[in-house]
């Protein structure tokens, strides 16, 4: 299987912006094992801004320039961490920083597809993030849920897995509605489903459930299934590749 896994800031970082060592180590271990089992993995990783803010000892920035500066710092921290952890399992990582323009121009998209394909042939694990320090608002993808769906579409992935700080899509935000129920399968993204999704539940998260459901729409329209699951339980990825029900599955449209 060719799987795009996206992991959010609220999984990789503690609220103050320091690395969540337990989550990150658990995820890299399982991802490495899944790659060893013969699957192709593409990681879309958030947390550059959050980790940068942590390292610079500043609050999560709200102005664009400080956000971009923090992302420039945090992206180094992120890749240093991935390189080190994946290296323990003899895996090679490759950084790819993308903007909206890379998907919007045919020749850039073509280059991007070719590079990703070659990295996969070479058994390197692409680690993708938005190129935050240069992505001005006009050209910003805005969130990595969308980025994961766009990547999955352009390399014809079998599955996108969004690893969040919550088990899946609920009937309401469980942080404010403790009686909310998990929705295991979404066959069609109706306006009613879209209305269930709210914003981010933590100080570091960007998009919340809203951007995940929008991303699911993009992925499923391209025929790719998307699963939202909890990044704190890395080992659920084993169940996912075995086709067992985990989190919320958005079913891709059949051609
Ligand atoms: N209907 C819903 N079901 C589940 N979570 C929801 C819902 N609506 C809003 N949320 C919020 O979305 C959050 C996950 O998004 P986000 O904080 O951006 O995480 P990530 O960093 O993983 O992208 C949850 O913690 C939750 O508070
Ligand atoms: N590109 C940004 C993350 C954007 C984003 O979607 O964040 P998140 O909601 O934590 O997945 C960064 O690395 O800080």
Features of the shown structure:
eight-stranded mixed beta sheet; Carbamate kinase; 10 helices; transferase; binds adenosine-5'-diphosphate; binds ligand VHF; 255 residues
Description:
- Catalyzes the transfer of a phosphate group to glutamate to form L-glutamate 5-phosphate.
- Its EC number is 2.7.2.11.
- Residues 1-230 form the Aspartate/glutamate/uridylate kinase domain.
- The protein is of the alpha/beta class and 255 residues long.
- The protein has a single domain (2-250), classed as Carbamate kinase (3-Layer(aba) Sandwich).
- Helix content is 44%, strand content 16%.
- Strands 3-4-2-1-5-7-8-6 form an 8-stranded mixed sheet, sandwiched between helices.
- Helix 3 crosses helix 4 and helix 7 packs parallel to helix 9 (208-221).
- It is globular, with a radius of gyration of 17 Å.
- The two termini are 19 Å apart.
- The model has no long low-confidence stretch (mean pLDDT 94).
- Bound molecules: adenosine-5'-diphosphate and the ligand N[C@@H](CCC(=O)OP(=O)(O)O)C(=O)O.
- The site of the ligand N[C@@H](CCC(=O)OP(=O)(O)O)C(=O)O has 16 residues, from helix 3 and strand 4.
